[in-house]
UniProtKB/TrEMBL annotation:
Domain Response regulatory: 3-121
Pfam family, one: Response_reg
Domain of life: Bacteria
Organism: Micromonospora arida
Protein name (database record): DNA-binding response regulator
UniProt xrefs under SUPFAM superfamilies: C-terminal effector domain of the bipartite response regulators (SSF46894), CheY-like (SSF52172)
Sites of 4-aspartylphosphate modification: D54
Biological-process GO terms, alphabetical: phosphorelay signal transduction system; regulation of DNA-templated transcription
GO molecular function, one term: DNA binding
Signal sequence residues: none
Keyword 4Fe-4S belongs to the record: no
Record domain HTH luxR-type: where: 149-214
């Protein structure tokens, strides 16, 4: 079972999400919170697999809560899926920088929400499919001068670095494999090793790391 926590200041939104997710079968909603402060405490105690996090809430916003949850986690932190009414704006980039693993709009179809949670639970970060490459491109443009994580960067092999660079350009595993003339399974293996070396939980945070540390040239 995928253990999920819902964080939103509107009870009706949480109730709707609960109904949608519990119909999926393999998803269990283990907790609900109406603000970021409560979310941090519940995450610390229950350690859910995925957290669906609203952005703007009283008594603790979602971005601050995400940053604290990721920082305080012992072992692998929960994957945070930011669910918001806002499209390509500061909230998206703030969520990525805070350590969120995904981003999706509140007006998505139920099936999209379920699939997003499944992907995050499996270690695949994502943003809403309609804006994936726009988000990556804009994030790259807005990201300040690289901060050096030379030790981790130097641990990557030439092939791992090449794959991370292509991933940061918005390419899928299949597209990377086609461009490098290798098998998709080989891409997954190299990417998995690269993520372990840099301490990234998922693909999206690997992209964030690559831009923040100058692995990808703007």
């Amino acid at each position: 079972m995928i253990r999920v926590m819902l964080v939103d200041d509107q009870a009706v939104v949480r109730a709707g999400f609960r109904v949608i997710l519990e119909q999926a079968g393999e998803i269990e909603v283990v907790a609900e919170a109406s603000n970021g402060s409560a979310a941090v405490e519940l995450a610390r105690r229950l350690q859910p697999d995925v957290i669906c996090m609203d952005v703007r809430m009283p008594h603790g916003d979602g971005l601050t809560a995400t940053r604290q949850i990721v920082a305080e986690a012992t072992g692998t932190p929960p994957a945070v899926l930011v669910v918001t009414t806002f499209d390509l704006d500061e909230y998206v980039f703030g969520a990525l920088e805070s350590g969120a693993s995904g981003f999706i709009l509140k007006d998505c179809e139920p099936e999209e929400l379920i699939e997003a949670i499944r992907r995050l639970a499996s270690g695949y970060g994502l943003v809403d499919q309609a804006v994936t490459r726009r988000v990556i491109s804009e994030f790259a443009r807005r990201t300040p001068a690289p901060r050096s994580d030379a030790a981790a960067a130097h641990q990557l092999t030439a092939r791992e670095t090449e794959i991370v660079e292509l991933l940061a350009q918005g390419l899928s595993n299949v597209e990377i494999a086609e461009q490098l003339f290798i098998e998709t399974s080989t891409v997954k293996s190299h990417l998995g090793r690269a993520m372990a070396k840099i301490g990234a939980r998922d693909r999206l945070q690997t992209v964030v790391w690559a831009y923040q540390n100058g692995v990808v040239q703007r």
